[in-house]
Each structure stands twice: as structure tokens, then as C-alpha cells.
Design goal:
By secondary structure, the protein is an alpha+beta fold. The protein has two helices and six strands. Strand 3 and strand 4 form a beta hairpin.
């Protein structure tokens, strides 16, 4: 199992979500985050200086079986790409184990719902 952490532009979230669902990645969590990029700018609006170096983004957290890692990465990469600086990053980390709280199952079988009850 792997954990995919992706930081993407807010305006690309719906496209990335749809691409992940199309790639059969049906479960993930996300949150709105702020970060600091390399670009440091100040903008003046009506005489007030605003620091625009803090950037709003969406952070996705996805746990997938090893066989689904590449298709999840490709879905995110293709949907989030604008070709401009600031498109984001994708990180892949190993996951040692997973435990279903409801059933007590362990391992990658916790990542999908089987027809058993």
C-alpha cells in the first residue's frame, strides 16, 4: 500500500476529483491548505499593501493498493497540470498497515468494500 499526498491548485480540484473517480480511486480525503512558494510579491490595492506569497491550495490524501499507484498519479498529474509554475507536487509514501475499525480487517483489503457482510 502507498499513501499519495498531492498539493494542487484550488481551481483544479473538481477536474482532479473527476479524474480520480474515473480511474476507480473512489475514496480520498482533502483539505484546504496554505503554503509559501518561491515567488514573493506584494500587491497594492487602494493604498494597502497585501502580501501574496501565501498561496491557497488543496491537499489530497489518498491510500491505494500498490497496483493503483501509477493510475492515481497519472490521473492527478494530467488533471492538475496547467503548464505554469505552481501546479503542485505529488508525494508517494509507503504504508505499513491499515486496520478497518468496523470489521477489524487488516491490510489492503481494508481499502475496498467487498460484497461480504
Amino acid at each position: 500500500m502507498k499513501k499519495i499526498e498531492a498539493i494542487i491548485r484550488k481551481v483544479k480540484f473538481d477536474e482532479v476529483k473527476d479524474a480520480l473517480l474515473e480511474a476507480d480511486i473512489e475514496w480520498f480525503s482533502y483539505s484546504e491548505v496554505r503554503g509559501i512558494g518561491k515567488d514573493r510579491q506584494e500587491r497594492i490595492y487602494r493604498g494597502v499593501i497585501y502580501d501574496t506569497s501565501s498561496i491557497e491550495r488543496i491537499a489530497l490524501s489518498i491510500i491505494v493498493r500498490d497496483q493503483n499507484v501509477e493510475k492515481a498519479i497519472k490521473a492527478i498529474e494530467n488533471a492538475a497540470r496547467t503548464g505554469s509554475i505552481g501546479d503542485g507536487r505529488i508525494f508517494v509514501l509507503p504504508v505499513d498497515d491499515a486496520v478497518s475499525i468496523r470489521t477489524g480487517k487488516r491490510g489492503d483489503s481494508t481499502l475496498f468494500i467487498s460484497s461480504e457482510k
